[in-house]
């Protein structure tokens, strides 16, 4: 089969399309023939070495397709089942072997492209909005990168809860997209003072929670946007890692909290995984959350996909199609 891998860390140019042996499932595993592969920012962190990986590496932890082989002892799935998975490596390929209990069945009415475009991002949103900080109707929240893959789902899901959403984006085109998704207020974070705008919108109070996947560029604005005892949720590094800072700054800002969650601590057990995916697919099925697949790339074009993602030239979700 064909797969994308890198033998050294670096820029998008280290990604290569190679021929490899079709993997056989071990006990407890299934082989999934991919129909669509999710592209996520964490894939670039692995490629650059920001998050160390064993080399050579086939990146990607999210895909959807059809079960075509069962390992010994697998009884919860059968050949032909439509499934999606999120986690691990090896998704940038025509097929992959994964633990059967780390897959989720794709319900009728959800196609493979939608599942691959939404599973990791959507479960991330479920964890952040429902468990990291359980957002309540009537609360005002700050969502950075609102036109991105996670941001689009987060804005819609927060509006479904009944929250007031302040969204930040990097361009006028993305501002229009955020408004279309339901954002109540939109800030161009490269041109406007985010903290000042948030204070103006909230009558000086700030927000109880801010969700920041941008990192270095937006750190100061996010910190200055929080209400007393507010929670800073940093969950990505699109512009680079958050710089070191003295914990005393949290006290100076009003006894603030900061957390750095990762999805996989929220879907540790098969039960947690099933519940999170079920909540996501329920939101999609209800029509409250619509998944925009902004761009698709052939498997051979993984390099170009990473260039577009890191250049912030994507809108919504991105997929590789094997």
Automatic annotation (TrEMBL):
Record-level Gene Ontology MF annotations: mRNA 3'-UTR AU-rich region binding; NADPH binding; quinone reductase (NADPH) activity; zinc ion binding
Pfam annotation, one family: ADH_N
Keyword annotations from UniProtKB, A to Z: NADP, Oxidoreductase
Domain of life the protein comes from: Bacteria
Gene3D superfamilies for this protein: Medium-chain alcohol dehydrogenases, catalytic domain, NAD(P)-binding Rossmann-like Domain
GO CC entries: cytosol
SMART domains associated with the record: PKS_ER
Entry-linked InterPro entries: ADH-like_C (IPR013149), ADH-like_N (IPR013154), ER (IPR020843), GroES-like_sf (IPR011032), NAD(P)-bd_dom_sf (IPR036291), QOR-like (IPR047618), Quin_OxRdtase/zeta-crystal_CS (IPR002364)
Every Enoyl reductase (ER) domain range: 10-320
Protein name: Quinone oxidoreductase
Native species: Phenylobacterium kunshanense
């Amino acid at each position: 089969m064909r797969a994308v891998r890198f033998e050294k860390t670096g820029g998008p140019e280290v990604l290569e399309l190679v021929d490899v042996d079709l993997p056989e499932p071990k006990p407890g595993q299934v082989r999934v023939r991919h129909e669509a592969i999710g592209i996520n920012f964490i894939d670039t962190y692995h490629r650059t070495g920001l998050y160390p990986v064993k080399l050579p590496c086939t990146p990607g932890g999210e895909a959807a397709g059809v079960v075509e082989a069962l390992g010994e002892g697998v009884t919860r799935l059968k050949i032909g089942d439509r499934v999606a998975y999120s986690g691990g490596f090896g998704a940038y390929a025509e097929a992959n072997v994964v633990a059967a209990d780390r897959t989720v069945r794709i319900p009728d009415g959800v196609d493979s492209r939608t599942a691959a475009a939404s599973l990791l991002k959507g479960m991330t949103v479920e964890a952040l909005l429902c468990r990291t900080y359980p957002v309540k109707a009537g609360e005002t929240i700050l969502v950075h990168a609102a036109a991105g893959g996670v941001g689009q789902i987060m804005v819609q899901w927060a509006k479904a809860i009944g929250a007031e959403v302040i969204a930040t984006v990097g361009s006028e085109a993305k501002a229009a997209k955020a408004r279309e998704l339901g954002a109540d207020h939109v800030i161009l974070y490269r041109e406007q003072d985010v903290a000042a705008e948030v204070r103006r919108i909230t009558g000086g109070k700030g927000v109880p929670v801010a969700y920041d996947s941008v990192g270095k560029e937006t750190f100061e604005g996010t910190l200055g946007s929080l209400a007393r005892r507010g929670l800073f949720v940093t969950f990505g590094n699109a512009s680079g890692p958050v710089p070191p800072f003295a914990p005393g700054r949290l006290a100076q800002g009003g006894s603030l909290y900061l957390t750095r969650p990762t999805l996989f601590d929220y879907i540790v057990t098969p039960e947690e995984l099933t519940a999170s995916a079920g909540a996501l697919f329920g939101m999609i099925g209800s029509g409250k959350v619509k998944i925009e697949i902004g761009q698709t790339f052939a498997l051979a074009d993984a390099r170009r996909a990473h260039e577009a993602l890191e250049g912030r030239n994507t809108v919504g979700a991105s997929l590789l199609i094997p």
